[in-house]
Amino acid sequence: MLCGRLRRVERRDEPIRAAVVGLGIGQMHVWSMRRMKDRYTVAAVCDLDRAKAEAAAERTGADIASFEEVIARDDIDLVDLCTPPSLHLEQITAALRAGKDVVCEKPLVASLAHVDQLAEVEAESPGSLMPVFQYRFGNGLQKVKALVDAGVAGRHHTSTMEVAWRRRADYYAVPWRGRWETELGGVLLSQAIHALDMLTYIAGPPTRVFCRTTTRVNDIEVEDCASASLELADGSLATASATLGSPQEITRHRFNTAGFSAESGTAAYESSSDPWEITPDGPEAEAAIEEVIGSWVERPEGWWGQLERFADARATGDPPPVTLADARASLELITALYASSRSGTDVALPIEPDHPLYRGWLP
Question: Of 135, 307, 322, 360, which has the maximum CB count within 10 A?
Fold first, then answer.
């Protein structure tokens, strides 16, 4: 790890030379990097759809390259993976072993065993791995997190999460979607994973879960509706529901604590952004809230916000703003939810290596 830190410090004033692999959601990564031209240079793009690659190359001045060419190039610092989930383990491993920093979209991999395998690879590599949890960086959610970290929340009572989106047959016309082998999961893993991360980011890790899942909206292999009950480490309770069959699309979080209640807006894909309604439990709590967030300075959100913070961390040699440990916690919760939905029983966390789903939740 020391050599990785030295390499970063030596290059701290130079833009990070990035290759974006996969130009579906990867186009948002390209868009974000182009807004930070002093921090990033999009040096290469890669996609099996030649037209997408050519369009991105024309916008950015990047080369078009294969994944194998990208990891072999000395002029690439960062490999940004936005490929189908079933490819992630092999591609992350190859890029880290080639000495690159890696950013990877969700879901990171298909099991806790794979996460632990990647931890060993990362420990032996000069680069770092940053999973993508871009919703963490909405200014509304960041304010609530700042209040919790400052002790203003006090005792947590209950939390709720609701993801109600709409996915139709045309969405699943993409061959790898809706299949266990390639998408690795349904609404819990592919759509609600960020909202679940937002829930635990604020309320803390779960220690016990109960979950039911079903497929009611589309003719697919994976689940598209889910409902769960969580007991968190501090003893507070949470509920979570997710569906891909809601004509009106919303995402909503609510946190009820001794110091305040905090409720997000309902914009389906921007719910971590302002406005959030934060209601203090009296004058003393109101003063404490004002002290922490009264002069809040907004920062970029979403992928832009996460990649900006990654550049900050890389410049100083600090860990990335989202770590492999964060992704492990997320996938441990997913594993527990799938285990509960299949067994019809409560499932306790942590998930140990001897658990039946430690090596994967695929049927």
Answer: 307
CB 258 within 8 A of CB 157: yes
Residue boundaries of the structural domains of the chain: 2-131, 135-299
Question: What global pTM score does this model have?
Answer: 0.93
Alpha-carbon distances, residue 242 vs 91, 164, 211, 213 (angstroms) = 30, 6, 11, 9
| Position 4 pLDDT exceeds 50 | no
Residue-wise pLDDT tens digits, 139-183: 999 999 999 999 999 999 999 999 999 999 999 999 999 999 999
Determine the longest span between alpha carbons in the chain, in angstroms: 60
Considering the domain 135-299, what is its CATH architecture?
2-Layer Sandwich (3.30)
Strand order in the sheet with 78-81: 63-64, 40-46, 16-21, 78-81, 101-104, 129-131
**The CATH number of domain 2-131, selected from 3.30.230.10, 3.40.50.720, 3.40.50.11890, 3.90.1560.10:** 3.40.50.720
64 bridge partner residues: 45
Q: Taking residues 248-269, what's their average pLDDT?
A: 98
The mean predicted confidence, pLDDT, of the chain is: 95
Residues in Cβ contact with 282 at an 8 Å cutoff, skipping those fewer than 6 apart:
none
226 is written with which tokens? 């889910």
In terms of Cβ atoms closer than 10 Å to its own Cβ (0-12, 13-18, 19+), residue 111 is: buried
* Phi, psi angles (nearest 5°) of residue 207: -115, -15
The CA-atom distances, in angstroms, between 64 and each of 70, 72, 83, 261, 266 are: 9, 14, 16, 49, 39
pLDDT tens-digit map of 177-191: 999 999 999 999 999
Q: Using alpha carbons only, how large is the chain's radius of gyration in Å?
A: 20
Peptide bond into 275 cis (omega under 30): yes
User: What is the distance between the alpha carbons of residues 35 and 123, in angstroms, rounded to a whole number?
Assistant: 31
Collapse the DSSP code of 362 into the 3-class scheme (helix H, G, I; strand E, B; otherwise coil) and give the result: coil
